[in-house]
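Q: What residues go here?
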Protein backbone atom coordinates (compact mmCIF):
# COMPACT_ATOMS: atom_id res chain seq x y z
CA UNK A 1 0.00 0.00 0.00
CA UNK A 2 1.04 3.55 -0.71
CA UNK A 3 -0.16 6.56 1.23
CA UNK A 4 -0.09 10.01 -0.31
CA UNK A 5 -0.21 13.17 1.76
CA UNK A 6 -0.64 16.53 0.07
CA UNK A 7 0.23 19.93 1.47
CA UNK A 8 0.60 23.50 0.28
CA UNK A 9 -2.92 24.44 -0.71
CA UNK A 10 -4.56 27.65 0.44
CA UNK A 11 -6.04 30.97 -0.54
CA UNK A 12 -4.16 33.19 -2.96
CA UNK A 13 -5.01 36.25 -5.01
CA UNK A 14 -5.14 36.05 -8.78
CA UNK A 15 -1.66 36.34 -10.23
CA UNK A 16 -0.08 34.76 -7.18
CA UNK A 17 1.79 31.50 -6.78
CA UNK A 18 1.50 28.36 -4.70
CA UNK A 19 3.61 25.24 -4.39
CA UNK A 20 1.94 21.93 -3.68
CA UNK A 21 3.81 18.97 -2.25
CA UNK A 22 2.87 15.32 -2.06
CA UNK A 23 4.85 12.80 -0.05
CA UNK A 24 4.46 9.08 -0.66
CA UNK A 25 4.97 6.55 2.10
CA UNK A 26 4.50 2.82 2.43
CA UNK A 27 5.40 0.41 -0.37
CA UNK A 28 6.60 3.22 -2.59
CA UNK A 29 9.84 1.82 -3.95
CA UNK A 30 8.28 1.02 -7.31
CA UNK A 31 6.13 4.04 -7.99
CA UNK A 32 6.51 4.88 -11.65
CA UNK A 33 4.32 7.87 -12.23
CA UNK A 34 3.25 10.61 -9.81
CA UNK A 35 1.27 13.70 -10.45
CA UNK A 36 -1.68 15.93 -9.84
CA UNK A 37 -5.32 16.01 -10.82
CA UNK A 38 -7.88 18.62 -9.85
CA UNK A 39 -11.62 18.87 -9.48
CA UNK A 40 -13.42 22.17 -9.50
CA UNK A 41 -16.89 22.67 -8.09
CA UNK A 42 -19.42 20.95 -10.33
CA UNK A 43 -16.71 19.65 -12.63
CA UNK A 44 -15.12 16.30 -13.33
CA UNK A 45 -11.67 15.46 -12.07
CA UNK A 46 -9.07 16.38 -14.67
CA UNK A 47 -5.39 15.85 -15.26
CA UNK A 48 -3.08 18.68 -14.30
CA UNK A 49 0.38 17.18 -14.71
CA UNK A 50 2.29 13.95 -14.19
CA UNK A 51 5.94 12.97 -14.04
CA UNK A 52 7.63 9.60 -14.29
CA UNK A 53 10.52 8.35 -12.19
CA UNK A 54 12.74 9.17 -15.16
CA UNK A 55 11.57 12.78 -15.24
CA UNK A 56 9.29 12.62 -18.26
CA UNK A 57 6.44 15.09 -17.82
CA UNK A 58 2.93 15.48 -19.16
CA UNK A 59 0.79 18.61 -18.72
CA UNK A 60 -2.78 19.55 -19.43
CA UNK A 61 -2.90 22.14 -22.19
CA UNK A 62 -4.60 24.57 -19.82
CA UNK A 63 -1.59 24.75 -17.48
CA UNK A 64 1.36 24.51 -19.88
CA UNK A 65 3.76 27.34 -19.25
CA UNK A 66 1.97 28.21 -16.01
CA UNK A 67 2.55 25.18 -13.78
CA UNK A 68 5.72 23.16 -13.31
CA UNK A 69 5.88 19.64 -11.92
CA UNK A 70 9.00 18.18 -10.35
CA UNK A 71 9.92 15.14 -8.34
CA UNK A 72 12.47 14.14 -5.73
CA UNK A 73 12.82 10.38 -6.08
CA UNK A 74 14.98 10.12 -2.97
CA UNK A 75 12.21 11.69 -0.90
CA UNK A 76 9.36 10.10 -2.86
CA UNK A 77 7.87 13.52 -3.16
CA UNK A 78 6.27 15.32 -6.08
CA UNK A 79 5.83 19.07 -6.31
CA UNK A 80 3.60 21.34 -8.34
CA UNK A 81 4.70 24.94 -8.70
CA UNK A 82 1.70 26.99 -9.76
CA UNK A 83 2.29 30.51 -11.06
CA UNK A 84 0.06 33.27 -12.40
CA UNK A 85 -2.91 31.65 -10.75
CA UNK A 86 -6.39 32.43 -12.04
CA UNK A 87 -9.79 32.05 -10.39
CA UNK A 88 -10.48 29.15 -12.74
CA UNK A 89 -7.58 27.27 -11.14
CA UNK A 90 -9.66 27.04 -7.97
CA UNK A 91 -10.15 23.35 -7.23
CA UNK A 92 -9.38 20.47 -4.96
CA UNK A 93 -6.00 19.18 -6.07
CA UNK A 94 -5.36 15.47 -5.69
CA UNK A 95 -2.02 13.74 -5.66
CA UNK A 96 -1.79 10.62 -7.79
CA UNK A 97 0.66 7.73 -7.93
CA UNK A 98 0.86 4.73 -10.22
CA UNK A 99 2.86 1.65 -9.29
CA UNK A 100 4.89 -0.11 -11.97
CA UNK A 101 2.45 -3.04 -11.74
CA UNK A 102 -0.50 -0.75 -12.40
CA UNK A 103 -2.01 -0.05 -8.99
CA UNK A 104 -3.17 3.51 -8.59
CA UNK A 105 -3.31 5.59 -5.44
CA UNK A 106 -4.87 8.90 -4.55
CA UNK A 107 -4.37 11.47 -1.83
CA UNK A 108 -7.27 13.09 0.00
CA UNK A 109 -6.79 16.39 -1.76
CA UNK A 110 -5.68 19.90 -0.90
CA UNK A 111 -7.85 22.91 -1.64
CA UNK A 112 -6.56 25.75 -3.77
CA UNK A 113 -8.70 28.88 -3.86
CA UNK A 114 -7.79 31.78 -6.13
CA UNK A 115 -9.61 35.02 -5.45
CA UNK A 116 -10.17 37.63 -8.14
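A:
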Amino acid sequence: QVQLVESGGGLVQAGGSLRLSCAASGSNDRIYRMGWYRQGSGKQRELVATITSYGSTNYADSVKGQFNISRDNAKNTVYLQMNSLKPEDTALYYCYARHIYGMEYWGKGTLVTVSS
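A: Context that may help when evaluating the design: The mean pLDDT is 95. DSSP finds no helices and eleven strands in the chain.
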